[in-house]
Amino acid sequence: MAGVVAAGGAAAAGAGGGFGASVFASGGASLSAPDDITSMNQHVFVAWQNGVGPMGEPAANGNTQSTVVEYSTGGSMLRSWRLTGRVDGMTADLRHERIIATVNEDGNTSLNTIAPVAPSGSQVVHHTYSPNPPVHGGGTDAPYLYRGQIFISASNPSDTSQPAVYRATLSGTTATLTPVFFDDSSAIVANVGDPSFGKSITLALTDPDSNIVVPRSASRFGGDFMLDSQGDQQQIYVHNAGTAAQKLFVLNLTQSVDDTAFVTSSRGNLYLTDAQANKVYVLRGHFDPGSAFSAVTPGNANNAPSNPGPNYLATLNLKTGALTAVPGLTVQAKGLVFVAGDGDESDDE
Fold first, then answer.
1. What pLDDT sits at residue 341?
2. Could you tell me the residue ranges of all domains in the chain?
3. How many whole angstroms separate alpha carbon 221 and alpha carbon 213?
């Protein structure tokens, strides 16, 4: 593992717009393809997929396990866990001091919890879904905690009239899934200045992917649950998600995106995974609380051109859906997490 390299040093990934990026951690012979990333108690957790396929297919070398690694904020490797399958979604459950990780976003899917402070041998619990397989016919992707509930993206659907997001209730080694909203739910167009602004449409989601809860400090959608439908270039913001009063808004984006991270403090760092470089980077600079950064993924749009160009980090305009590249940065961003400075309070739900 590589520790932090000073921004502007040999391993720096570019700087611009008041930001500088440096290497936080590097893969190697046994760790490759970093994807999702989360944080808990000022530690950073990275999912290394190690070549495993999206339905759990073995890597070229026969490996069938991803590795979740816990790092200090200085980049030191603290602990690691090997999970069967491809870890594509991961989040922290602070109330229960555990990490929630889903495996296999295209099918043969299930869920694991990791309790880092539990006794050795009992830290990882594997949960089978009920119903199994999930009714949408695909896999599961990002989990996130919203008002104490575990919400999970229903990825790679074979039936787009089924849930886009599930609520998962854990009991023993079973994760029972119930719908939150559907791929064809109604939503109100949220793009300011668009001729359809304020009108209700029927969604046609084909690629539910990442999700997050918008902090109260955001300029829009504060406190809402957000689902990114990557291929569709849309984000769905849900007010009072999972209740009878829930209301959906759709923000059409100018590009396809993977993770979106919201700044929750003026002091802190943005961590980014880059599978192409096989590295994790840390971005430092002046952050405005409530602002949003997204990992733009041109090649993952449903209508992607034959030569879409590499991923990049951008700021997201929550009113228009416009994405503006962070200048001078060469990281091909994928997974994102913002970690507030030690002692700062986050206003995430």
1. 84
2. 15-340
3. 9
Q: Are the beta carbons of 330 and 250 closer than 8 angstroms?
A: no
pTM confidence score: 0.93
- Whether the CA torsion 177, 183, 185, 191 is positive or negative: it is positive
Please give the structure tokens belonging to residue 196. 């359809």
3-state secondary structure of 335: coil
Q: What percent of the chain has a predicted confidence (pLDDT) above 70? A: 93
DSSP 329: B
Cα gap 247→262, rounded to integer Å: 21
Structure tokens, 293: 């950064």
37-71: b (≥16 Cβ within 10 Å) or e: bbbbeebbbbbbbbbbebbbeebeeebbbbbbbbb
184's CB contacts (< 8 A; 6+ apart) are 160, 161, 202, 203, 204, 205
DSSP string spanning 38-103? Answer: EEETTEEEEEE-TT--TTSPPPTTS--EEEEEEE-TTS-EEEEEEEEB-EEEEEEEGGGTEEEEEE
Query: Distance between CA 33 and CA 47 in Å, rounded?
Result: 8
- Lowest-pLDDT range of 137-141, 206-210, 286-290: 286-290
The backbone torsions φ and ψ at residue 300, rounded to the nearest 5 degrees and listed phi first, read: -100, 0
From residue 44, how far is each of 50, 103, 107 by CA, in Å? 18, 19, 27
Please give the structure tokens belonging to residue 254: 């100018």
pLDDT in tens, 193-217: 999 999 999 999 999 999 999 999 9
Tell me which of 2.60.40.10, 2.10.109.10, 3.90.190.20, 2.120.10.30 is the CATH number of domain 15-340: 2.120.10.30
C-alpha dist (Å) from residue 61 to 7, 181, 264 = 35, 39, 41
Q: How far apart are CA 226 and CA 210, in angstroms?
A: 8
